[in-house]
Design goal:
alpha+beta; six-stranded antiparallel sheet; about 15% strand
């Protein structure tokens, strides 16, 4: 049918748009989205583009509960507040932020950056970017495939994968913009190689810059235009000669790109004295390129891509048919995908929060759509039985994807705690029993509460027992026959324990129980000390918890205290479990009989 893929495009965009508007809520600007968005209310409403004062942000979060912690605010070496995320997403939000301000002022809503007109304006903006991305995806597909196959690919990508979740419920996150920009890069790459018009090269360069400003690791999309039509040493030489011949357009794109990133660089320079700065300071989240989580990303029951998005196995298989049928673009697509996949797998928090399946892989779907197309093109020439078998499997995978998405939205599939046992216990179920819930991985309360209620299910592992009876080098004191430790006035920390996680257990979590005797003198003044627990790795501390060591005992009386802490999601078993006493103030105090015990699930 003529224009069948266009009809599918219109229907698909209509479904996505109607659904997205209907699920709009009052906390669209929360968690990571709040971090991307901060630039706008800080600059245009609070007249503080440098983010020097976050009092307004704390107040709004207290009123609206947009995020559990203000992790989206970083600090420089001087302890001054900084934006955690780059400003790329804010640039895409900007026109819709302005529209939200206009609607708010005209309708009597607060012009605060967070009232309903802003929420709906941003959602509409997200829908527009989604539609643009799909329009360019269709353009790409029609360059290689007939109407029917192009339409089928769009249906599979949108409704058979995790695309459906992240372009509806979460369409304000980076993946929406990245998908759109990647599609535009591919389309302009195709057009440039067809007609050599410089505008296509410039547009590709600008999009690469914007991608880097949205998410720096997406800069590798430059591989697509660089290797397009390169399939041998000879074609590589020809490509280099072509790029040299068009260097003026490359320099023009670089110049425009520099203008785009200049505000970000000037902001960094103002705050740190450096034009290039890593504000993304979260030791628990970052790249571990030498220890990628490839098998987890592919097959983990928590988020595994091919577990929750199984239909994409046909796209992976499609690389073979792409190689056989269109070698000039094979290396471009393959190198880009495998570099992107490796980087995504190397992220220490490889499960990517509460997303459905592996969220950032959606950015590679424009390339995988091409691979899927060549696989479908191959099948189209096969027998009726083979085509029917594939159609049956594809429909089942699509329905499974839709059902599991429904399970996720209704918390039958837990976005954080799903295990292999729980997955199969709830497979195709519409409700969860109490016995099912026991199969989930350990619950971690985002509020920081530590309630160890199932100690009977755990094996106790003694780790530390310090009574100060043996070593004078610790500066211990003697009171009658008893030894104890007295903090010095100029002392900051006392390290109780630093032990490699793998030395203690191979399980996915530990409960740590710390006990000690504490005594404060009558003249104790100032801030109470804290017991600090954390995990540490080369990048710094994560899973940090500091709790005041307070007692209700009289001065000069010993009091036994106990603290419980659960380890965070472990980034690597090479990381260290730490227990420290942080003195904080100047007044001295005494501690004795320190014990640390770990509890691992039997």
């Amino acid at each position: 049918m003529k224009n069948f893929s266009k009809i599918i495009l219109i229907v698909t965009c209509s479904i996505l748009s109607i659904y997205r508007i209907n699920v709009t809520h009052k906390k669209e600007i929360g968690w990571d989205v709040l971090g991307y968005y901060l630039y706008l209310p800080a600059t245009f409403i609070h007249h503080d583009p440098m983010l020097n004062d976050i009092t307004w942000l704390k107040q709004i979060n207290e009123e609206q509960q947009l995020t559990g912690t203000l992790y989206m605010v970083s600090q420089n070496e001087k302890g001054e507040h900084m934006y955690f995320f780059l400003m790329g997403m804010a640039l895409f939000y900007l026109p819709f932020f302005m529209a939200g301000s206009a609607f708010a002022s005209l309708s009597g809503f607060p012009v605060d950056g967070f009232s309903l007109p802003y929420q709906y304006s941003l959602v509409v903006g997200g829908i527009i970017y989604t539609i643009i991305g799909l329009i360019f995806l269709r353009k790409i597909l029609r360059r290689f495939f007939p109407e029917g196959i192009s339409a089928l690919i769009m249906v599979i990508i949108v409704f058979g994968t995790n695309y459906i979740n992240h372009f509806t419920n979460d369409n304000l996150t980076t993946v929406n913009i990245i998908f759109m920009l990647t599609s535009i890069v591919i389309w302009n790459t195709i057009k440039w190689h067809e007609n050599l018009k410089g505008k296509h090269l410039v547009v590709s360069g600008i999009c690469v810059t914007l991608l880097a400003l949205v998410k720096p690791t997406e800069v590798f999309v430059f591989i697509i235009p660089l290797l397009w039509n390169v399939s041998s040493k000879e074609t590589m030489k020809q490509k280099i000669a072509l790029l040299v011949a068009n260097k003026k357009y490359i320099f023009l794109a670089m110049g425009i790109g520099l203008l785009i990133v200049m505000p970000q660089m000037l902001y960094w320079f103002n705050k740190t004295g450096k034009f290039i700065y890593d504000s993304y300071k979260n030791p628990g989240v970052g790249l571990d390129v030498f220890s990628p989580h490839i098998m987890d990303v592919l097959f983990s029951y928590r988020k595994g891509w091919l577990i929750y998005t199984p239909i994409m196995i046909f796209s992976v298989i499609g690389f073979y048919f792409l190689y056989k049928n269109n070698r000039p673009i094979f290396y471009s697509c393959a190198v880009y995908f495998f570099v992107s996949f490796y980087i995504i797998s190397s992220w220490s928090e490889w499960w990517y929060g509460a997303g459905f399946s592996i969220r950032p892989l959606i950015s590679t779907y424009p390339v995988l759509a091409i691979c899927l197309g060549y696989f479908l093109l191959y099948l189209s020439k096969k027998s009726f039985v083979i085509k029917t078998t594939f159609a049956t499997v594809a429909v089942l995978f699509l329905l499974l994807n839709q059902f599991q998405w429904w399970q996720l939205k209704n918390w039958i599939l837990d976005p954080y705690r799903t295990t292999k046992e729980y997955y199969w216990a709830t497979f195709l179920k519409t409700s969860v029993t109490e016995s099912d819930q026991k199969l989930l991985s350990v619950y971690r309360d985002f509020s920081g509460k530590m309630e160890f209620t199932e100690e009977h299910l755990y094996q106790k592992i003694p780790l530390v027992n310090i009574n100060f009876d043996e070593a004078d080098t610790l500066g211990n004191q003697i009171e009658g026959a008893n030894h104890f430790y007295r903090f010095k006035e100029d002392q900051d920390f006392f390290q109780i324990m630093k032990k490699s996680y793998r030395e203690i257990t191979s399980t996915d979590h530990l409960w740590i129980k710390m006990s000690m005797d504490v005594r404060y003198p009558e003249n104790f003044e100032g801030i109470l000390p804290s017991l600090v627990n954390s995990m540490s790795r080369k990048n710094g501390l994560y899973g940090y918890s500091a709790r005041e060591i307070s007692t209700d005992s009289l001065p000069n009386n010993w009091k036994r205290i106990e603290f419980i802490w659960i380890t965070p999601q472990i980034r690597s078993t090479k990381d260290f479990v730490n227990c420290d006493i942080w003195k904080r103030g100047k007044s001295v105090f005494d501690v004795d009989n320190i014990t640390v015990d770990a509890y691992k699930r039997e």
